[in-house]
Amino acid sequence: MIAESIVNISAAVISASTPLLFVAAGELVVERSGVLNLGVEGMMLMGAVAGFAVTLTTGSPILGIVAAAAAGAVMALAFAVLTLTLMANQVATGLALTIFGIGLSALLGSGFVGQPVPALPKLHLAGLSELPVIGPVLFGQDALVYLSVILTGGVAWFLKRTRPGMMLRAIGESAASAHSLGLPVIRVRYLATLFGGAAAGLGGAFLSLSYTPMWMEGMTSGRGWIALALVVFGSWRPWRVLAGAYLFGGVTILQLHAQGAFHLPAQVFSMAPYLATIAVLTIISAGPWRGRFNAPADLGKPFRPSV
């Protein structure tokens, strides 16, 4: 009985953490390039509705996942054009795109409310999935769970081990210096922003195709904002972001179980993940180690190449 409870809770934590990990890993790449994209909540919602709609109409979850990534990338492209080409304020544009994504996803998804789709199938790894406790937890998840971890590892390898990754980091620290060395600042930032949008779309697809396989208006419930905080919590390091995503996923699940143990209004427990986010950011900002959490030097700063 105890082992079964551990398996169920652990699997639930992994599921709750996966959308956060997708969005945070993508946003980390965007911010390491010097761009601050606050529109990820809207991009998640567009990915969720696009992935659900395509899966429901075609019967193919693979096409749905591709459509979700494409929807997030299209939203990110709009953000990139406005901020990188037209030099609009990044904070205001990101907030506007979040509001736009909330409204547009509700409009597009109005005809799909209440229509379920089969959840993404769990992968079965012969000999591993049957292991007690760790088998169903680590080797009985769906493909998107493994993709989120692979994506995080790929981001870590890309940023640290590849020349394009070093270029991206250099641009995030000083776009003017990178441009003077001949690096294509705007092109790199465009590609990073598109990648971040696609990752946010995948996070949305996980919500509507696996976590709760149906479409509901506003189903992200602020996860995009938590993912933004996770990038800071992880000090712009991929593996720390992964640890933070699973930590906050655990808080989300534990508050659900706490509702049955304590006689308090459910709304109190629903606030727990967001209160934890505020508490962690406050500790990071005020603690003696805050210097270790410095953001990329050019984060959020506009850059126009000199002619």
TrEMBL record:
Subcellular compartments: Cell membrane
UniProt GO molecular function: transmembrane transporter activity
TM annotation in the entry: 6-23, 35-56, 62-84, 91-113, 133-159, 190-209, 215-234, 241-258, 264-284
Domain of life (superkingdom): Bacteria
UniProt-listed InterPro entries: ABC_transp_permease (IPR001851)
GO terms for cellular component: plasma membrane
Entry keyword set: Cell membrane, Membrane, Transmembrane, Transmembrane helix
Keyword Transmembrane attached: yes
Membrane topology: Multi-pass membrane protein
Entry protein name: ABC transporter permease
Signal sequence interval, chain numbering: none
